[in-house]
Structures are given as C-alpha cells and as structure tokens.
Design goal:
The chain is of the alpha+beta class. The chain is about 40% helix and about 20% strand. The protein has helices spanning about 10-20, 25-35, 80-85, 90-95, 105-110, 115-120, and strands spanning about 40-45, 50-55, 60-65, 75-80, 100-105. Strands 3-2-1-4-5 form a five-stranded mixed sheet. Helix 1 packs across helix 6. The mean pLDDT is about 90. This is SCP2 sterol-binding domain-containing protein.
Length: about 130
C-alpha cells in the first residue's frame, strides 16, 4: 500500500521512510530506540489542501496515513518545504525560525527525526 498522494508530490518520501524502516529488523530497532515517539506531519499543497501522515517510532516502526493516535510531536509545513527537507536542501531549524515549519508538542523530540529523514534522503527521488 503506497503512502503517496499525487496531490502532494513530496509524500513519496513517506514510502521511502517506511521502506528504510522495514529494510531490516536491526534498522527498525535502532530507529525505534532513537525516535521513541510518534511524529505526525501535516502538509499543505499549493492548492491549499492539507493531508497528514505519521511515523510511529514508539511501537511499530512504520509510517501510516493520518495523524495517528496521540502524536508526540506534530510538524506542519508546505509540501514543497517537506520535499526540500527530505532532499537535504532545507534545514529544519531555519524553516522553524522563519515560520515555515510549525511544531506542536515535544519540540526536542522533533530533533530526533533527522537521522530518520536522512535514510529517506538517499532513496527519495524528489
């Protein structure tokens, strides 16, 4: 089941993150240990529509559609900014400081996402 939504081009990265998490049991366990949280993403596309996904690094070590149940941290940003972030062309801290990335919940947990996004960076063709 693909997590990609054609209205949100950068959403293909969620498939890559999911594939990276499921590549091996060892990788998944490392990610669970590093993250230990549920990360929700709400993306807004150029048409003003929003869609959500979440990365469960607390229990399952997988990516799902929707915000999930009680996310530890929710990150809201544009589809294009998310694409740049996953591609390594944007810096999360700069996006946050400029108001392009909004974070609700445990801000410190959001910093734990970097190694997970880097795994998708090498595979995502955005």
């Amino acid at each position: 089941m693909s997590l990609k939504n054609d209205k949100f081009p950068s959403s293909a990265a969620f498939d890559e993150i999911n594939n990276a998490l499921n590549a091996s049991e060892a990788d998944r366990k490392v990610a669970l240990k590093q993250g230990n949280a549920v990360f929700a993403f709400t993306l807004k596309n150029a048409a003003g529509e929003t869609e959500s996904w979440h990365i469960d690094l607390k229990n399952k070590g997988a990516v799902f559609k929707g915000v999930g149940e009680k996310p530890t941290v929710t990150l809201s940003l544009s589809d294009s900014d998310f694409g740049s972030l996953v591609a390594g062309k944007a810096n999360a801290q700069r996006l946050f400081m400029s108001g392009k990335l909004k974070i609700k919940g445990d801000v410190m947990k959001a910093t734990k996402l970097d190694p997970i996004l880097k795994k998708a960076q090498t595979k995502a063709k955005l």
